[in-house]
Design brief:
Length: 218
């Protein structure tokens, strides 16, 4: 029986090409992001993370439908078979970056120190662009295929976060508080908290102070 590579992590580059090596590493960004989703789900139990991950998976399913519909070939010389329009890597990163940037703009007034929100938003957009560009450099997609992927992913993210703001955000807090399942699994919704990092830090410091041993009076 013939063997085939696992397409999610399969990537090749010219031997000795340092830029190609960087591009090959960038191609693994979606894998690392999925691992980050899983880590957040286990460690934070944030309901909003479940929602984002569901959108990410739905975006991937949409990419499969679009590829089957357009059935456009990859560039000549690509060492991977199958349709190439739109780029699945680019659409994945387009959704992830657009949702993150829109969430920062719409729902996060500040992140940590001044300008962190702007820097974080610029960083996710730059990473998405770098991953998309790496697919062109490695020859797996043409420029129009990655641009289409970024576009489809971004538009889908805009619709997904619009549904979150209009339909889910007003109801999630009450549902989490009243759901026995959420209470049992310690699922929470902190999307309304402006600076979760600061709130968690302050709570940990208060707990540390209250648990420190008190000096005995002489």
């Amino acid at each position: 029986m013939a063997r085939k590579p696992f397409s999610l992590t399969y990537v090749t580059y010219e031997e000795g090409d340092s830029v190609g090596l960087v591009c090959a590493l960038l191609a693994l960004a979606p894998v690392f992001i999925i691992v980050a989703y899983a880590t957040l789900l286990v460690s934070r139990r944030e309901l909003h993370v479940f929602y984002i991950l569901a959108g990410q998976l739905a975006n991937g399913a949409l990419n499969g439908l679009l590829k089957a519909y357009f059935d456009a070939p990859r560039p000549e010389g690509a060492d991977r078979a199958g349709p190439g329009f739109p780029s699945d890597h680019a659409q994945f990163m387009g959704f992830w970056a657009a949702y993150a940037a829109l969430f920062l703009i719409l729902y996060v007034p500040r992140v940590g120190r001044p300008y962190w929100r702007e820097l974080l938003g610029a960083a996710v957009v730059a990473l998405a662009a770098a991953v998309a560009g790496s697919r062109v450099y490695l020859g797996y997609h043409s420029a129009d295929q990655v641009c289409a992927g970024l576009g489809f992913g971004s538009v889908f993210a805009a619709g997904w976060i619009e549904a979150y703001g209009r339909l889910l955000r007003p109801r999630l807090g009450g549902w989490v508080r009243n759901s026995p399942v959420c209470r049992y699994l310690l699922v929470r919704d902190c999307a309304h908290v402006a600076d979760v990092l600061r709130v968690d830090y302050d709570a940990a410091m208060r707990r540390l102070g209250s648990s420190s041993p008190r000096k005995k009076r002489s």
